Amino acid sequence: MTFKPKGLQALFGGTFDPIHYGHLRPVEALAKQVGLEKVILLPNHVPPHRPQPEASPAQRLEMVRLAIQDNPLFTIDTRELERNSPSYTIETLTTLRKEMGSEQPLAFIIGQDSLLSINTWHGWEQLLNNCHLLVCSRPGYATNFSDPQMQAWLAEHKTDDPNQLSHTPSGYIFLGDTPLVDISATEIRKNLNSGQLNSNLIPPAVMSYIQQQQLYHS
Protein backbone atom coordinates (compact mmCIF):
# COMPACT_ATOMS: atom_id res chain seq x y z
CA MET A 1 0.00 0.00 0.00
CA THR A 2 1.38 3.44 -0.89
CA PHE A 3 0.49 6.66 0.88
CA LYS A 4 -0.75 9.81 -0.78
CA PRO A 5 2.02 12.43 -0.43
CA LYS A 6 1.68 14.69 2.61
CA GLY A 7 3.77 17.68 3.63
CA LEU A 8 7.48 17.34 4.40
CA GLN A 9 8.19 14.62 6.95
CA ALA A 10 11.52 13.85 8.58
CA LEU A 11 13.18 10.98 10.41
CA PHE A 12 15.46 11.47 13.39
CA GLY A 13 17.36 8.42 14.63
CA GLY A 14 19.36 7.86 17.78
CA THR A 15 19.94 5.61 20.74
CA PHE A 16 18.13 8.15 22.98
CA ASP A 17 19.96 6.83 26.04
CA PRO A 18 18.38 8.99 27.47
CA ILE A 19 16.45 11.38 25.20
CA HIS A 20 17.11 15.01 26.24
CA TYR A 21 16.59 18.62 25.18
CA GLY A 22 19.76 18.51 23.04
CA HIS A 23 17.80 16.11 20.80
CA LEU A 24 14.44 17.87 20.91
CA ARG A 25 15.11 21.63 20.81
CA PRO A 26 17.28 21.80 17.67
CA VAL A 27 14.78 19.56 15.83
CA GLU A 28 11.87 21.79 16.89
CA ALA A 29 13.78 24.85 15.61
CA LEU A 30 14.54 23.04 12.34
CA ALA A 31 10.86 22.11 11.96
CA LYS A 32 9.92 25.81 12.09
CA GLN A 33 12.63 26.77 9.58
CA VAL A 34 11.71 24.23 6.91
CA GLY A 35 8.00 23.69 7.55
CA LEU A 36 8.22 20.12 8.81
CA GLU A 37 4.78 18.61 9.40
CA LYS A 38 5.98 15.52 11.23
CA VAL A 39 9.21 14.26 12.81
CA ILE A 40 9.41 10.48 13.15
CA LEU A 41 11.79 9.43 15.93
CA LEU A 42 13.65 6.20 15.18
CA PRO A 43 15.23 4.69 18.32
CA ASN A 44 18.12 2.36 17.31
CA HIS A 45 18.47 -1.14 18.69
CA VAL A 46 22.02 -2.05 17.67
CA PRO A 47 23.80 1.16 16.59
CA PRO A 48 26.67 0.28 14.21
CA HIS A 49 28.99 3.18 15.13
CA ARG A 50 28.88 3.40 18.92
CA PRO A 51 28.85 1.40 22.17
CA GLN A 52 25.65 -0.42 23.09
CA PRO A 53 23.09 1.59 25.08
CA GLU A 54 22.92 1.25 28.88
CA ALA A 55 19.10 1.32 29.10
CA SER A 56 17.15 -1.55 27.53
CA PRO A 57 15.24 -1.06 24.25
CA ALA A 58 11.93 -1.04 26.20
CA GLN A 59 13.24 1.59 28.65
CA ARG A 60 14.58 3.83 25.87
CA LEU A 61 11.30 3.56 23.97
CA GLU A 62 9.34 4.51 27.09
CA MET A 63 11.61 7.53 27.68
CA VAL A 64 11.00 8.69 24.08
CA ARG A 65 7.23 8.23 24.52
CA LEU A 66 7.28 10.28 27.72
CA ALA A 67 9.41 13.03 26.17
CA ILE A 68 7.02 13.64 23.26
CA GLN A 69 3.66 12.82 24.84
CA ASP A 70 2.44 16.45 24.71
CA ASN A 71 4.14 17.43 21.45
CA PRO A 72 2.14 16.76 18.26
CA LEU A 73 5.20 17.39 16.03
CA PHE A 74 6.73 14.06 17.02
CA THR A 75 5.79 10.45 16.48
CA ILE A 76 7.74 7.17 16.91
CA ASP A 77 8.68 4.35 14.53
CA THR A 78 9.91 1.24 16.35
CA ARG A 79 11.13 -0.81 13.37
CA GLU A 80 14.84 -0.42 14.23
CA LEU A 81 14.21 -1.38 17.87
CA GLU A 82 12.56 -4.59 16.66
CA ARG A 83 15.66 -5.71 14.75
CA ASN A 84 18.49 -7.69 16.31
CA SER A 85 20.99 -6.71 13.62
CA PRO A 86 22.75 -3.34 13.25
CA SER A 87 20.48 -0.45 12.22
CA TYR A 88 21.80 0.90 8.93
CA THR A 89 20.10 4.15 7.98
CA ILE A 90 20.05 3.40 4.25
CA GLU A 91 18.13 0.14 4.78
CA THR A 92 15.48 1.86 6.93
CA LEU A 93 15.18 4.73 4.42
CA THR A 94 14.84 2.37 1.45
CA THR A 95 12.04 0.46 3.22
CA LEU A 96 10.24 3.66 4.22
CA ARG A 97 10.55 5.09 0.72
CA LYS A 98 8.82 1.97 -0.67
CA GLU A 99 6.04 2.31 1.92
CA MET A 100 5.50 6.05 1.40
CA GLY A 101 5.78 6.00 -2.38
CA SER A 102 8.16 7.87 -4.66
CA GLU A 103 6.49 11.29 -4.37
CA GLN A 104 6.45 11.83 -0.58
CA PRO A 105 8.92 14.57 0.52
CA LEU A 106 11.08 12.84 3.12
CA ALA A 107 14.11 14.08 5.06
CA PHE A 108 16.62 12.60 7.48
CA ILE A 109 17.89 14.81 10.32
CA ILE A 110 21.55 14.59 11.34
CA GLY A 111 24.03 16.71 13.27
CA GLN A 112 26.95 18.62 11.72
CA ASP A 113 29.32 15.98 13.16
CA SER A 114 27.45 13.21 11.30
CA LEU A 115 27.45 15.17 8.04
CA LEU A 116 31.25 15.54 8.18
CA SER A 117 31.70 11.77 8.56
CA ILE A 118 28.82 10.70 6.31
CA ASN A 119 31.13 9.08 3.75
CA THR A 120 31.94 6.42 6.39
CA TRP A 121 28.25 5.35 6.55
CA HIS A 122 27.13 2.09 4.96
CA GLY A 123 25.59 2.89 1.54
CA TRP A 124 25.90 6.67 2.04
CA GLU A 125 25.97 7.34 -1.73
CA GLN A 126 22.32 6.19 -1.91
CA LEU A 127 21.01 8.44 0.88
CA LEU A 128 20.01 11.40 -1.29
CA ASN A 129 18.17 9.07 -3.71
CA ASN A 130 15.78 8.34 -0.84
CA CYS A 131 15.62 11.56 1.21
CA HIS A 132 16.84 15.09 1.84
CA LEU A 133 19.38 15.66 4.61
CA LEU A 134 18.57 18.29 7.23
CA VAL A 135 21.63 19.23 9.27
CA CYS A 136 21.54 20.65 12.81
CA SER A 137 24.44 22.87 13.92
CA ARG A 138 26.71 21.31 16.54
CA PRO A 139 29.05 23.16 18.91
CA GLY A 140 32.72 22.91 18.00
CA TYR A 141 32.35 21.29 14.55
CA ALA A 142 33.61 22.65 11.24
CA THR A 143 31.06 23.73 8.63
CA ASN A 144 33.01 22.38 5.63
CA PHE A 145 34.59 19.08 4.60
CA SER A 146 38.38 18.91 4.49
CA ASP A 147 38.06 16.54 1.49
CA PRO A 148 37.51 18.59 -1.73
CA GLN A 149 35.41 15.81 -3.31
CA MET A 150 33.03 15.71 -0.34
CA GLN A 151 32.87 19.52 -0.31
CA ALA A 152 31.92 19.43 -4.01
CA TRP A 153 29.19 16.84 -3.18
CA LEU A 154 27.82 19.17 -0.49
CA ALA A 155 27.91 22.19 -2.84
CA GLU A 156 26.10 20.22 -5.56
CA HIS A 157 23.17 19.24 -3.31
CA LYS A 158 22.97 22.15 -0.86
CA THR A 159 19.89 24.37 -0.85
CA ASP A 160 18.97 27.43 1.21
CA ASP A 161 15.35 27.32 0.02
CA PRO A 162 13.06 25.30 2.34
CA ASN A 163 10.38 25.25 -0.40
CA GLN A 164 12.55 22.93 -2.47
CA LEU A 165 12.43 20.39 0.36
CA SER A 166 8.63 20.35 0.42
CA HIS A 167 8.21 20.18 -3.35
CA THR A 168 10.66 17.39 -4.17
CA PRO A 169 10.82 13.92 -2.60
CA SER A 170 14.62 13.79 -2.04
CA GLY A 171 18.05 15.00 -3.14
CA TYR A 172 18.81 18.20 -1.19
CA ILE A 173 20.98 19.07 1.83
CA PHE A 174 19.78 21.91 4.08
CA LEU A 175 22.09 23.33 6.74
CA GLY A 176 19.80 24.49 9.53
CA ASP A 177 20.41 27.48 11.74
CA THR A 178 19.55 25.63 14.94
CA PRO A 179 20.36 26.43 18.58
CA LEU A 180 23.70 25.05 19.76
CA VAL A 181 22.61 22.90 22.68
CA ASP A 182 25.84 21.55 24.13
CA ILE A 183 24.44 18.48 25.92
CA SER A 184 25.53 14.90 25.35
CA ALA A 185 23.81 11.75 26.59
CA THR A 186 27.23 10.49 27.75
CA GLU A 187 27.63 13.54 30.01
CA ILE A 188 24.06 13.18 31.27
CA ARG A 189 24.65 9.51 32.20
CA LYS A 190 27.90 10.44 33.96
CA ASN A 191 26.20 13.22 35.92
CA LEU A 192 23.25 11.01 36.84
CA ASN A 193 25.68 8.42 38.12
CA SER A 194 27.36 10.99 40.36
CA GLY A 195 24.04 12.59 41.41
CA GLN A 196 24.91 15.98 39.87
CA LEU A 197 22.46 16.30 36.98
CA ASN A 198 20.69 19.59 36.43
CA SER A 199 17.16 18.39 35.66
CA ASN A 200 16.46 21.15 33.10
CA LEU A 201 18.42 19.08 30.53
CA ILE A 202 15.75 16.35 30.43
CA PRO A 203 11.93 16.52 30.15
CA PRO A 204 10.45 16.13 33.67
CA ALA A 205 8.48 12.96 32.81
CA VAL A 206 11.69 11.34 31.52
CA MET A 207 13.58 12.38 34.66
CA SER A 208 10.88 10.81 36.86
CA TYR A 209 11.07 7.58 34.85
CA ILE A 210 14.90 7.47 35.14
CA GLN A 211 14.61 7.84 38.91
CA GLN A 212 11.81 5.30 39.17
CA GLN A 213 13.78 2.74 37.11
CA GLN A 214 17.06 3.66 38.87
CA LEU A 215 18.76 4.02 35.49
CA TYR A 216 22.37 5.10 34.94
CA HIS A 217 23.56 4.27 38.46
CA SER A 218 26.57 2.01 38.76
UniProtKB/TrEMBL annotation:
Keywords: ATP-binding, NAD, Nucleotide-binding, Nucleotidyltransferase, Pyridine nucleotide biosynthesis, Transferase. One of its GO terms (biological process) is NAD+ biosynthetic process. Pathway: Cofactor biosynthesis; NAD(+) biosynthesis; deamido-NAD(+) from nicotinate D-ribonucleotide: step 1/1. Catalyzes the reversible adenylation of nicotinate mononucleotide (NaMN) to nicotinic acid adenine dinucleotide (NaAD). GO terms for molecular function: ATP binding; nicotinate-nucleotide adenylyltransferase activity. The keyword Transferase applies. Its EC number is 2.7.7.18. Pfam families: CTP_transf_like. Residues 11-190 form the Cytidyltransferase-like domain. This is Probable nicotinate-nucleotide adenylyltransferase. It catalyses: nicotinate beta-D-ribonucleotide + ATP + H(+) = deamido-NAD(+) + diphosphate. The keyword Transferase applies. Belongs to the NadD family. Gene3D superfamilies: HUPs (3.40.50.620). CDD domains: NMNAT. InterPro entries: Cyt_trans-like (IPR004821), NadD/NMNAT (IPR005248), Rossmann-like_a/b/a_fold (IPR014729). It comes from Providencia stuartii.
